[in-house]
Amino acid sequence: MTDDRLQRLWTPHRMAYVAGGENNPVGDGPDGCPFCRSQDRPDDEVNIVVRGEHVFVLLNLYPYNSGHLMVCPKRHVADYTDLTPGETAELASFTQKSMRALRAAQQPHGFNIGMNQGSAAGAGIAAHLHQHIVPRWSGDANFMPIVGQTKVIPQLLPETRKLLVEAWAALD
Questions:
Q1: How many other CB atoms are found less than 10 A from the CB of residue 17?
Q2: How far apart are CA 165 and CA 47, in angstroms?
Q3: CATH architecture for residues 13-171
Q4: What is the DSSP pairing of strand 69-73 with strand 55-59?
Q5: pLDDT band (50, 70, 90) for residue 146
Q6: What's residue 25's pLDDT?
Q7: Per-residue confidence (pLDDT) for residue 11, from 0 to 100
Q8: What's the pLDDT tens digit per position in 28-73?
Q9: Model confidence pTM above 0.85
Q10: Which of 17, 21, 47, 154 has the most CB atoms in a 10 Å sphere around its CB?
Q11: How confident is the model at residue 81 (pLDDT cuts 50, 70, 90)?
Q12: 109-114: which pairs have CB atoms within 8 A and are 24 or more residues apart?
């Protein structure tokens, strides 16, 4: 075994995702899609923050930062250009509301917002469109991802979800 001088921080909870567990897509259809399957489960089980008419907002199970949200159409659709006008409008509106809720709950200094279209562009679940909203803080890009090859998330997902559900409700 070679000594690469890297220290290891073990994250066995990610193995279900890496090995193709229950959170991975199976094929391109809605039956194998984790976003489609999550819609039939209780919000607190799948970390859904809010549901709209055309879209829903949920926490990313493998977040880049605490509060990493995704806005997903309810319909199983892969490409942004295939959204209906109603889906497009609600996706935009829920992105704005998500930013407001995150500001109220976590006071981030900025955001990364975007979507990866297709697996070649980095989409982990390419068959179901989703927009990422990643809150950012000055200094959050520290040495851990570079030196420790890991990301530190300071809050458990259920705690983050509770704060965001409350913040979202206060917006209405």
A1: 15
A2: 10
A3: 2-Layer Sandwich (3.30)
A4: antiparallel
A5: very low
A6: 53
A7: 57
A8: 566 778 999 999 999 999 999 999 999 999 999 888 888 999 999 9
A9: no
A10: 47
A11: very high
A12: 109/136, 109/137, 109/138, 110/135, 110/136, 110/137, 111/135, 111/136, 112/64, 112/136
3-class DSSP string for the chain: CCCCCCCCCCCHHHHHHHCCCCCCCCCCCHHHCHHHHHCCCCHHHHCEEEECCCEEEEECCCCCCCCCEEEEECCCCCCHHHCCHHHHHHHHHHHHHHHHHHHHHHCCCEEEEECCCCHHHCCCCCCCCCEEEEEECCCCCCCHHHHHCCCCCCCCHHHHHHHHHHHHHHHC
Q: Which residues are identified as catalytic? A: 130
Type of residue numbered 59: L
